[in-house]
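Board notes (copied after class):
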Amino acid sequence: MSSLLTRLYRGETRIDFIGTRRRWYFASLVLLGICVLSMLFRGFNVGIDFKGGTQFQIKAANTSITTGQVEEALARSGHGTESAAQEVGSGTTRQIVIKTKELKLEEQTATERKLGAELKLDPEEDISTESVSSSWGGEITKKAIQGLIVFLIVVFAYITLRFEVKMAIGAMVALLHDLIVAAGIYSLVGFELTPSTIVGLLTILGFSLYDTVVVFDKVAENTRDLLATGRETYATAANRAVNQTLMRSVNTSLISLLPVAGLLFVGAGVLGVGTIKDLALILFIGLAVGAYSSLFLATPVVVDLKNREPRYQALTKRAQARQSSPRLADEPVPAGITPVVRRGTPAPAPKPGARPASRPPRKRP
């Protein structure tokens, strides 16, 4: 175990990321299929910031009011709920949040009074209302999609200029994978989709990009003179690069995941701070998936694209020939060793105690 950690720390592991890429492709396709089906059939729990509506926040500190009682009280007021009532906070900060369709100002006031009478609360002190029009929600959705598209275009241009277009394609595959998986798991869990979710999504895409660029930089370094030397294939050099950056990826992911896990499991789960769980969940999912895609998707995709080029196909044949015939004539001689050229049959070794053979006299001109 200690030797494994030592090799991991020094970047000397020999995990075959590239050779086993097909099984990771299959696992990713299965996960993507589940996420897409969930988004199509289950959908998202969209917040009022995107679809519009009215939200009532009821102070329930040190009371026995339940979410079921709030839902029944709202139903008796003549308005149906858009989603189930949600309890946020605990103790003196405990609140119950419930949403309905978009209401006019007079309807909001009347509903506050009815809720106060049903729940025996002061409508002016204990009930607050927030309303967002459907047009505003549509504009927020439009801006979020535009921001995501601009982000992906800028990333593609950056990777192309910094490295090459095939690496940009590999980075896009990893980013789209992270985007779909994060959105699909969000759909499966049923957490509310809010502007904080979009902010968190762009944040984790940035993290995934950073991790991918670190790996790509090492791949570019290992493959710089590959065609000239012909010592190894592109896949071998790329796999070595992933192993060399593995410790950095693990450290970055763990350091990033620990505080986010605290937000999600302690803040939202134990303390009941529901206002941060939408952001914490998207960050936790995205960081984990981003670390996976950087190692198991981005670089393998680049290897498959590079292996389609004729020059790298020829390189693969040359490298395989070197491995099968280690005594090729062009095999480099290690530094500090003078090659010995043998001609004809070597002379037998002299017997012990024998005198050295006399040299023939040199003829003077």
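Comment from the instructor: The two ends are 76 Å apart (CA to CA). The beta strands are 45-46, 53-59, 81-88, 95-100, 127-132, 192-193.
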